[in-house]
């Protein structure tokens, strides 16, 4: 049986960025573009994504605040996050990783490179889940 398409949420207040990334991903993934952190958390009340692509500079709640909230919530703490942002300074990049980001990609980005990074991350996450399942099966056999 073929796996269901992975769900990716794109969070960015820039409508053109949402559109560009959605168009890049839509043939391979279920894509949910949202323009704010509030919309992200509303959406996640109905579904848990396989990945979040997150901008940093947004009005209201910025990307650093979003990742802190997600990593602090047991329901969302394991959702991998890739920062996809125009902030190309080392301090922001390090802060993103320190807060738990799986990757940090700056705009403008190469579409094929972003697709590969997303694919690699989703594969790693799938393999982690499979190892956890195997560990549980072994533990239950004792």
Describe this structure in words.
This protein has one domain: 3-Layer(aba) Sandwich (Rossmann fold), CATH 3.40.50. It has helices spanning 15-25, 37-44, 63-71, 90-98, 111-141; strands at residues 7-11, 30-34, 51-54, 81-85, 103-106. Helix content is 48%, strand content 16%. It has a 5-stranded parallel beta sheet with strand order 2-1-3-4-5, sandwiched between helices. The mean pLDDT is 94. The protein is globular. It is of the alpha/beta class.
* Intertermini distance: 30 Å
Helix content range: 40-55%
Count of domain modules: 1
Based on secondary structure, the structural category is: alpha/beta
Largest beta sheet, briefly?
Answer: 5 strands, parallel
Shape: globular
Walk across the major sheet and give the strand order: 2-1-3-4-5
List unreliable stretches of 5+ residues: none
Total beta-strand segments: 5
CATH class: Alpha Beta
Strand percentage lies at: 15-25%
């Amino acid at each position: 049986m073929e796996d269901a398409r992975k769900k990716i949420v794109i969070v960015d207040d820039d409508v053109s960025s949402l559109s560009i990334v959605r168009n890049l991903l839509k043939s391979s993934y279920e894509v949910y573009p949202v323009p704010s952190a509030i919309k992200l958390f509303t959406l996640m009340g109905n579904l848990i994504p396989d990945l979040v692509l997150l901008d940093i500079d947004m009005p209201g709640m910025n990307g650093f605040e979003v990742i802190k909230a997600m990593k602090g919530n047991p329901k969302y703490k394991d959702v991998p996050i890739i920062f996809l942002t125009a902030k190309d300074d080392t301090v922001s990049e390090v802060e993103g990783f320190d807060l738990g980001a799986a990757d940090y990609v700056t705009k403008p980005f190469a579409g094929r490179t972003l697709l590969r990074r997303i694919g690699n991350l989703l594969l790693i996450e799938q393999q982690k889940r499979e190892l956890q399942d195997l560990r549980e099966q072994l533990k239950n056999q004792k």
